[in-house]
Amino acid sequence: MIKKISTIALATVAFIALTGCGEDKAPEVKTYKYTTVQVYEKSCIKCHGKHGEGNPKKKTPALNDRTPGEMAEDLYDVKNGGTSGQSSGTDHEVMEHNMQKLVDKGYDYDINSMAEFLSYLAKTN
What we know:
CATH architecture: Orthogonal Bundle
Helix content: 55-70%
Strand content: under 5%
Number of domains: 1
Shape: elongated
Number of strands: 0
């Protein structure tokens, strides 16, 4: 009898844990202080150029030579310290440091929106 009660109690606890107590939680929507365009114009353009073409003198890479998906991966690496598993571990170190400073100043952005914007810049060049 005790074994049966223990099994029922354990099953009930597992069910509640797996269903989240019946609460439907909407995904968190992050809001940003600036639009993607404003972030690019205020913090990226001086090094990466008006059309994302990069600047060899400043050793800044072009941002308009990848697909939006590839660019999103690179941006994810920069914002998260190379955690997508695709980063070489060193290519983005300087920008990872700079990115944290930009976020602290309010220049954070949605990765997919920025990747799409950079794709748009490539088409306007």
